Amino acid sequence: xxxADTPSSVRTLAAAAPVRLSSVEVRLIELTLVxxxxxxxxxxxxxxxxxxxxxxxxxxxxxxxxxxxEPLFSSxxxxxxxxxxxxxxxxxxxxxxxSSVDDVAAALRRFKGHQMAKAGLELAFMDLAARSxxxxxxxxxxxxxxxxxxxxxxxIEKDIPTLxxxxxxxxxxxxxxxxxxxxxxWDLDVVxxxxxxxxxxxxxxxxxxxxTLAHTEHLKQLDAFDLxxxxxxxxxxxxxxxxxxxxxxxxxxxxxxxxVHARAAAHxxxxxxxxxxxxxxxxxxxxxxxxxxxxxxxxxxxxxxCGGMLECGIGRAHNxxxxxxPNFSLPGDISASKRYWARDVITQPFEVAPDGTVGxxxxxxxxxxxxxxxxxxxxxxxxxxxx
Length: 387
Ligand code: NPQ
Ligand code: MG
What we know:
- By secondary structure, the chain is an alpha/beta fold.
- It has helices spanning 78-93, 101-108, 115-133, 137-141, 160-172, 188-197, 216-220, 240-248, 262-271, 287-299, 313-323, 337-340, 372-377; strands at 14-19, 23-39, 42-56, 59-64, 98-100, 147-149, 152-154, 177-181, 202-206, 229-231, 253-255, 276-279, 304-306, 357-359, 379-386.
- It contains 13 helices and 15 strands.
- Helix 1 crosses helix 3, helix 5 (160-172) packs parallel to helix 6 and helix 9 (262-271) packs parallel to helix 10 (287-299).
- The longest helix is centred in the N-terminal third of the chain and has 19 residues, at 115-133.
- It binds N-acetyl naphthylalanine and magnesium ion.
- Residues 206, 208, 231-232, 256, 307 line the site of magnesium ion.
- N-acetyl naphthylalanine binds next to strand 2 and strand 3.
C-alpha cells in the first residue's frame, strides 16, 4: 500500500484499557528565549508555558498548552486556559471513563472554543494512551516518517543585515526552508534582499494578519520573489477576503490563525481562501481535529505542514509525531531546541541534522525523557486536581 492510501483504521487513539484519571496537574514553567522573537503582533523575550500531566493506573501523560500571556495570536491566553481547565474541563474529565483521545474530544465538544486549553488535555491523554500500549504516538496515529523535514521561522530584526545573518546561519545549519515574519514597513525590501542572499532555497513569509484587502496591489509585488507561500496575510476570522486575495496574487496563501478546526479547513479549500494549510495541534484543539485537517487536505490534494508555537520539548515531541503523517509534505516550523532555548525540559534536546531533518521519537508516548529536576526548578505554579 502506498503511504498516500494509508487508511485511518491504522490509527489507534485508544488506551490499552478504558481509563479513569486519578489526577490532572496544570503546571506553569518559565523559559527565557535565547533571542527575542518579533512578529507583526509583538515581541517576546520569555515564555510562560502551561503543561498538563495526567495520571491513570500508574501511567502518566504530558501535554503542552500553546497559549501566550496576551491574546495576540488568538483570543486565548494562559489565564483563560487556566480558568477553563480548572473550572470546567478537568472536573468534567475526572468524572468519566475514557477509552480514547476521541472520548476526550467528545467530552469537551459541548464547551465552545478554547482549543489551546482542550489540546493540552488531548495531548496529555494521547501520551498516556500510547504509553499504556507501549507504542509511540507516531505509531499510534499511523505516522510513516522516521525523520521530518524542517524549516525555521525568523522574526523581525532591527535591520535587514541582521536578518540576513540569521538567514545564512540557519541555512548553514541545514534548515530546508526559511520563513520571514513580515508586516507593513518590513516586507518588500526585506524579502528582496533576503532573496538575493538566498536565491534558490525555499522561502516563505508570514504576516500574522497584518494586512487588509486594501494592500492587494502591494502584496502582488511579492509574486516576484518565487515564495513558497504567504501565511495568514489577512484577519484571523476572514475566509472571504482571503479568497479574493488568493484570486489576485500568484503566491500561494497558507492559512494559520483562520484554521481552528477541520470544518474550517474544508471551508477554506472550498472557498479558495488558501492553497496550503499549516496545522498546529494546539490551535485546532488537539489530535482529533489535527488528523481531520490532515485528511481533508490530503483528500483535496492540498499539502500541509506542521506549524510551531515556540514550544518546549514536550510540545515539540508531539509536533514531530504529528508531522510524521504522510501528507505533511512541506518542511515544518519544528526547529532544534537550541533555536529557542538554552536548556530544554527534555534530557535529549532536539537537533537538526545537516540534511535539515529532525528524527521522530520512537520511545513510548511522546518518546522523550523529561528532565524533572530542571522542570521543577523552572516551575512557577502547580495545581493538582484529583478524582
Ligand atoms: C506562527 N509561530 O506561525 C507562529 C506565531 C507565534 C514559529 O512563527 C509566543 C507564543 C510568541 C506563541 C510568537 C512561528 C509567539 C507565538 C509567534 C506564536 O504564526
Ligand atoms: Mg503563522
